[in-house]
Amino acid sequence: MDSPDKIPSLLTPQFKSSRRSGAWMLLSEFCWHLLHFVVYMVHKVSHIVDTFQFYLISRGLLRKYNILQVKKLRHLAIVFDSEEAHQTSKVGELMRYLSSVGVKHLSLYDMEGVLKRSNEMELVLKSVGDSSVTSHLEADANPSTAFIDKEKMELELLSFSDGKEGVAKAASFLYSKYLTDVDISGHQIEPRFTEADVDSALRSLGCGGPEPDLLLVVGPARCPLGFPAWRMRYTEIVHVGPLRSLKYGAIVKAIYDFSKKHQNYGS
To answer: d(Cα 9, Cα 6) in Å, to the nearest integer?
Structure first.
């Protein structure tokens, strides 16, 4: 049996190893919390700077933002979180502002189709278009389109179903068009679909539409929330925050920054 004076010497390596392991755990935990704190502070400072800049832009104190060149912005799309889309009055205010700055084509999208089904949208369209609205907002319309003073802005309302149903209808259209083709000997011709065929099918079914140059995401999410992917091949995507606290300076800055960019589309 070991004597009592040998016990500390036998436990010393394990004890030292345990202490080192505990120290490393404390250090790694400290570094982890420090990293989180740094990221949090950078985010908060960036948010404060952006909010202050948006305020200055809204007040017209930053002169370069006072005149927007919207000619390059042929089509603007706005993606709303479905909760945000229920704020119809604020959506109307945003539409009025975009119409006033010269946006020609506007698409509004929310996943659940809140805007398409809203009875208040007709009133909003009339208020935006000064009662000169030709409305096409039937429940079965796909997609829904309205013209707000045709010299000013064309409006399109979209939902997640437009994407899913669009693909299904395009597949059915291509099936009926190509799978019934036969050659001279009476054998069925194997179909070969190209991207152009799919794009043509989507457009012929009213599910194509122009591709947005700029897409603004309104709400907590920082993703397009199911906006039809085939219409975003070269789209610039910008998150502008929740609708309830949206600053028009954020919209102005997004449009201004887009107007100053040069897009390379490849060969």
So the answer is: 5
